[in-house]
Amino acid sequence: METLRILHTNDLHSHFEHFPKIRRYLKQVQEMAAADQVLTFDAGDFMDRSHPLSDATEGRANIRLMNDFHYDAITIGNNEGISNPHAVLERLFDHANFPVLLSNLREEDESWPAWANDYKIIKTKKGTRLALVGLTAAYPMTYGPNHWQIKMLGETMDRVLPEIAGQYDCLILLTHVGLRMDQWLAKHYPEIDLIVGGHSHTLLEKGVKEGRTWITQTGKWGNYVGDISLEIGDDHKIISIKPTTVPVADLPSQAGDEAEIAALYEEGKKMLQSRQVADLPEKFKDDKLAAIDVSLEAIADFAGTDLAMLSTGLFLTPFKSGLINQFDLQHALPHPMHVVRTTLLGRDLWRLVMEVEKNRHFLEHYPLVGMGFRGKIFGQVYYRGIKYDPMTRNVFVNGQLLDPAEEYRIAVLDHYVLIPFFPTLAIVGENEFLFPQFLREVVGDYLGRKYPVKKEGEFIEERAERAEKRAENRGS
Q: Which CATH architecture has domain 276-455?
């Protein structure tokens, strides 16, 4: 008989505060487990650019830290595949010491990404053949604008399974597709023995079984580590799979953990602070509405529209006056969101405004989780170029009464298309997802053009002009 231990993580989202404990636990099991072999996997969304160090290094710091976890294979999540520009993902794994498995993502020309493996067949020390297949969430409307071809799960499995038929004794999937789709995979492809999953942030403390397939997931943020025991017979057939999870909070701390965690944050903070963005006038000091107004201008300018819509919950802090840097922007707008240019007929734009106004008071204090949102509450909605008269329920666009038959273009966020409160955007909107810049990058670029940072020579010239003006004033 053969015994295996499979350790796994998912949806770490750059929560480096758990990394010291996770690293020690993985190392201890990898080196001392009473098993014939230990394998370690990650199921994606390991990075999140809301952490300063992930943002400053475009995820390279995550790879540096994950190399110490000694993964045998990982797959990617939407935070790696969609939140990163194409070029960033292409070089993200340059220094990884683990393989990336991903069967359902291609380059635009149908070629395989240089950093990814379609699947992997490994043989254990006792000769059991394990087939490993990686799948990520199939989102065509966001992968496409980022210059990738994403393949549907069924299409991919129908291609891969015949290719690996007869080459394995045990089939393991690393998936970032969520529990519902994991259950779908298990139901439609019962030859799968084990799914190590992620994406839906579901904590399956003892796993769940769908047919003959075990599905495991450890919640989110590194709060738990998955630990699975497998027994395999001498004929290389699986006898039993026993999933469990280990609460990271219950693992012992060590001296130096807090210092390590703080140092990672400070490292990223200093890198971002060194990158100046703009020199804002006094009106921006602690004024969230000023930040919203200029951000509405920014996304409208980026999308080439007159109209725009943003919510106050996006702004975790207001901007400040004077010099602001990338850390200030990252702190204010940590969300991995992209601008969407939506085309609507006037009657549909009217309906969108009605949806906003109907939900306005509900959303003002609504606690929101997911869909790329890194804040606490949704907040109030503000428009650019749109006025609503609650007495008549009329909508005015740039001062003119809305024409039901005319086409209008409005800049919104992918977040608003995905959440359920404004169905008009998803149902009838002609949506163009604009990549690769994040919301904060779009805002930062606009601020930099409108309120540029003065170079040293400009400061000297400005001081001389002020001195000359003061002399003139004294003379008069």
A: Alpha-Beta Complex (3.90)
